Amino acid sequence: MTRLTKIVLFVGLLTAVAVGAEPPSKAPRLSEVARFPKEYEVALRAVTAAVVKEGMEPKEYFAEISREGSALHFWLIHESHDPDPGWRGDSCHRCRTIDYDLRSGVVSKISGIR
Q1: Residues 6+ apart with CB under 8 A from 98
Q2: C-alpha angle 26-6-14 in degrees, rounded to nearest 5
Q3: Which of 34, 80, 97, 109 has the largest count of CB atoms under 10 Å?
Q4: How far apart are CA 51 and CA 54, in angstroms?
Q5: What is the pLDDT of residues 41-91, one digit of tens each?
C-alpha cells in the first residue's frame, strides 16, 4: 500500500465519520481489548504501548482495524473528532493511523497530524 493510498483511505474514513456513515462511537475504544477479535490481541497490546509511548491516552481513541497482507492498519479516531458534515479530514488534529507488521510483531509506523 503506497503512502498516497493510505492517506486517501484515512481521509476517506474521517470523511465517512464526518458525514455520519460510521460514527466512531460504534467502534470499540483502543483500551477495550476484549471487544476486538481475539486474533488481534497481541497487535492491540503493541499498538496500545506505542500510543502510550507517544504520550497519547488509549481510552480517548476509537479504533478500526483492517488487514492487508502481513500488515494490520489501525485507524484511530480521537473522541474529540468533530462529526460536522461540513468538515473534511482530521478536525481535531489528534486522529492517527498505526501500522503493525505481523511478521516482525512490531509497530512499524505511526501517522497523523501532530
Answers
A1: 47, 50, 51, 73, 74, 76, 107, 109, 110, 111
A2: 35
A3: 97
A4: 5
A5: 999 999 999 999 999 999 998 999 999 999 999 998 888 776 665 555 665
